[in-house]
């Protein structure tokens, strides 16, 4: 963490404005400091200034203090730690037909999880009203204090204007384009709301679950298909937020199937969960959900297994270009269709390793997402936590509560 007045935890003296309470909180949250003495060394603040700032963090519930090991002179040193139970954040990962919800602590750990089954075609107002109602019940069920909700992380399919908090004209979200989503939740929860693409938040969660991996490609195969790119340790959103939109890449040898985007033979119209439902229904199977497709595969239905493997090959064909371009260390596969993992990933591997250069695949791992159905809500939680627990946000909260110490 960098900030005005902050030196290293080894004792570098400050060179500008004194460290704020928010900056001290960041050091504690990172584990860079654990005592008042260490804070003084890292920031150059006096003992009185350190005590004033720490006291305000303790009162806000962001930090706890316990007696620790011996300090200089043999007296027990009070140790400071990030208080992960000092509030909650709410997470809502909106899908085409189902929205996953969670209440999380300040470390992003899921405390309670549920879902709302409602198609996004119902419109943002109806969907987010239902989401708000269920989140309020989840908060109550966990015994959490509604007044201690600190933020909401929200994800939606397709391209997102994360600054405005709205969808940018995604075909699968009719009626959502340019609708600012935070106000639809802040009437019930007057807290910051941060919005991003659904696969981006999955990538945020997967990045946290893969420490030391700086180059990661995350693929979601569900009702639709999307991807997200972590390169050099940073999530890549692109110039207009559409990085990773592989679902509308056209397949060269497709049968000429029209896509809802206006093109033909897009990957999503040929290889997504929706496409598999269509194709299996045409072959006499009774299936109307992606989980139904998964059930057919698990029951050994040969046609379902064949179609899922073919879908995997088509997805791998598109991913091969991304592998050559980005050279990821890991590809993680998530989404509802991951329940049919073996034929799906067998097809992906077949195309990726056939079509990519050998140097890019020599150590490449293709594996299921690490969070087993929680990557969406966990990523939403991390997304908003990075905002509401930033030094400036913490200082703003303390100022609102009239707790900010004088410099």
In words, what does this structure look like?
This protein is of the alpha/beta class. It has two domains: 88-202 and 375-388, ATPase, nucleotide binding domain (Nucleotidyltransferase, domain 5), CATH 3.30.420; 211-368, Nucleotidyltransferase, domain 5, CATH 3.30.420.40. Helices cover 39% and strands 19% of the residues. The protein has 14 helices and 14 strands. The protein has helices at residues 21-30, 36-43, 47-60, 124-142, 183-186, 198-209, 267-271, 273-282, 290-298, 302-326, 341-355, 358-361, 375-388, 391-400, and strands at 63-70, 76-82, 88-94, 98-104, 110-117, 149-156, 160-161, 166-167, 193-197, 216-221, 225-231, 234-236, 330-334, 365-368. Strand 10 and strand 11 (225-231) form a beta hairpin. Helix 1 packs across helix 3 (47-60) and helix 6 (198-209) crosses helix 13 (375-388). The protein starts with 20 loop residues before the first helix and ends in a 7-residue tail after the last helix.
Major sheet: size, sense and barrel closure? 5 strands, mixed
Strand content: 15-25%
Mean pLDDT: 91
**Computed Rg:** 24 Å
Strand order across the largest sheet: 5-4-3-6-9
CATH superfamily of the largest domain: ATPase, nucleotide binding domain
End-to-end gap = 20 Å
CATH class of the largest domain: Alpha Beta
What's the shape?
Answer: globular
Instruction: Kindly name the structural category.
Output: alpha/beta
Predict the CATH topology of the largest domain. Answer: Nucleotidyltransferase, domain 5
**Whole-number count of domains:** 2
The run of helices and strands is HHHEEEEEHEEEHEHEEEHHHHEHHEHH
CATH architectural category of the largest domain: 2-Layer Sandwich
Low-confidence stretches: 1-15
Number of helices: 14
Tell me the total number of β-strands: 14
The percent range for helix content is 25-40%
